[in-house]
Amino acid sequence: MNTRGSHFARWARWWVTSATLVACSTTPPVADGGSDAAAIDAATPMDTGAQDAAVIEDSALDAQREASASDADAGAADAGASPSDAGTGDAGAAVSLDALSGQIAGDVCAALFRCCASEQDLNAYFAPYVASNRLASVRSRLPPMVAPAAFTETQCRAALSDAFAITPWADWVSAARAGRVSYDGAAAGACSARLAQASCGRAVWDALTDPRCFGFSPGTGDVQRSFFRRTQAAGAACSYVRDGAGGVFFGTCDPTQAFCCFESGGRCTVVPNAMLPGAMGTCRAAGAVGESCTIAPALRVCRTGLECDGSGRCAAPRTGTLPSLASCWSAADGLLGDCPAGEFCDLFGTSRCSPLRAQGALCSGGDQCASAFCQCPSSGCTTSADGSFVEVGRCAPWGLCTMR
Fold first, then answer.
1. Whole-angstrom distance, CA of residue 251 vs CA of residue 265
2. CA distances (Å), 35 to each of 287, 317, 398, 404, in order?
3. pLDDT at 182 > cutoff 90
4. How far is CA 324 from CA 7, 333, 345, in A?
5. Residue 284's beta-bridge partner residues?
6. Which of 247, 253, 360, 402 is least enclosed, having the fewest CB within 10 Å?
7. pTM here?
8. Are 52 and 270 in contact (CB under 8 A)?
9. Tens of pLDDT along 62-116?
10. Domain ranges, ordered by start, for the chain
């Protein structure tokens, strides 16, 4: 099984994987960056200042906490559907840009109360919302801050409508109205239809958390929002989108061509947190294979689909399927490829591809289980702030959103 999800920058790869592997999926819900944000290198001291570091925390790292919290609370294995599943089913009616946030709130709450109204389900789904720094004003209105048994669909719609006015859709909608990203109402309608048609169990969980559709945590690379598209070429003015790391590094720029440069002292840098969300930058050409990439002293981002290698050059990620039981991770190079079907990369143990575990076996993430579900103990799965400690659960039959 592929534990990659995205080819994340080396500075973040170990930290992010540690933080999200409590119940890692085949496509972990990491911030929209991955290789897209691969200009960053942990070995390079950041000299962009405290505010710049806060931006990264408020995008990439906040998204990691959101994803980790959701997985840890439920032991859920898969926080998003396979890219090939996104937007399948009947097309559904196109959704207007003005109606988008309300439509998503209604669709999500209808699905939750159709299939996922148990305490475990609601706590699992809302964990990333509750963990988000940007949703502090809404947190008290969501499970588990509100007792799940007392939480109604009407409360759900109202709270999510207010949440979506903050994140993750607000910046996208503003950018679309300003003509800096394109919006596809038909694609949004397809996401609505897929969610409405999803059967209870893993199918509806996958639809709820699909990073290409309405999943709170964004995807990376090809697994990006299906109904918004960054379109601005090099030389155009760009704005930032607070929806994962890619939203800050690429902003509204076409990630296959350019990144959003906030110029300070004659060089590109990360936009200061205090200047978001209204800060404007300029799209600058992103690095192609073999070109330099770095965060300091000047920000230089690789094109989407590439990663910044150990020599500070943009390179194609390692995506080949590894031999059975082969080494899959090293401190110098990060992930070395994808483990074959029936295996996972044992990042917390041997750093080799290992057979998926049977029901009852110890696990620290659903990616390790043949059932794709790691059941937390009654105390709940927990991860330390630095990702160095993961409380283990046991592989179990799929256990989310199974009510009918």
1. 20
2. 12, 8, 31, 40
3. yes
4. 21, 19, 11
5. 259
6. 360
7. 0.76
8. yes
9. 333 333 333 333 333 333 333 333 333 456 799 999 999 999 999 999 999 999 9
10. 84-208
